[in-house]
User: Which sequence fits this backbone?
DNA sequence: CACACCTACTTGGCTTTGTCAAGTAGCATT
DNA sequence: AATGCTACTTGACAAAGCCAAGTAGGTGTG
């Protein structure tokens, strides 16, 4: 099936979240996404995301030699990126809550806020 | 902010899920989406979804007079649509699980099978 | 009847973003 | 030098949501 549309917009936040955990580079991010279950992300999908994020100042880039291949571009999150990610998490949460209601008819009672 | 990308692909499934609950028409679906928290969906967004769903035989259409306006197009889900929706739910679940892991670092332990 | 105002659906052009396929390039092994 | 890994780039494309404007039936007011 076609997950492309379901991925839209989500991927960006996921990539940003991976970078937030620590400086990393494209190929490694691909591995992280795969580990989390996003297995069909190709390089031609990821790299444009990285470029866009960089262009929008949400991440920053540093070039460094790899111990076993060509130069890597190491990315780290910026202040602006961290803020954007916070905002993204909130928007994602809200939308997925709506989707849960509509898709599963959960009235969202079963949340993790058991501490009132 | 721009929720357009986050909505992509999700909306289709949500609309289908609303129709699955019972025959309904565009304007009413808009209300259901709003009730669930999807408040910014305009007519120009919803109707093309309905058209597409119909074209793909996932829903079927019946015209009937409205008690207070122009003709309504009542939609109901087809067998094919129900199957598609089941598949959609699974794909959505999988992707949102991945997103949860990446976004919140939930290792997906907190599932609803606590009786395991 | 003319007009305004709801309800209800339609359409065209635009933008964003993921996908595929092919390409460039450094380094190690043979 | 040829192969094959790692690593990043690029161009053409398609899907789907968004906005704005348009069409049309019905009711109430004068």
Assistant:
């Amino acid at each position: 099936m076609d997950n492309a549309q379901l991925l839209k917009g989500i991927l960006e936040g996921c990539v940003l979240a991976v970078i937030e955990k620590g400086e990393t580079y494209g190929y490694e991010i691909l591995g992280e996404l795969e580990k989390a279950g996003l297995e069909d992300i190709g390089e031609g999908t990821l790299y444009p995301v990285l470029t866009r994020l960089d262009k929008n100042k949400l991440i920053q880039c540093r070039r460094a030699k790899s111990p076993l291949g060509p130069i890597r571009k190491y990315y780290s999150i910026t202040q602006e990126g961290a803020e954007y990610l916070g905002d993204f998490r909130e928007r994602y949460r809200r939308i997925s809550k709506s989707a849960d209601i509509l898709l599963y008819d959960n009235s969202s009672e079963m949340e993790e806020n058991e501490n009132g």
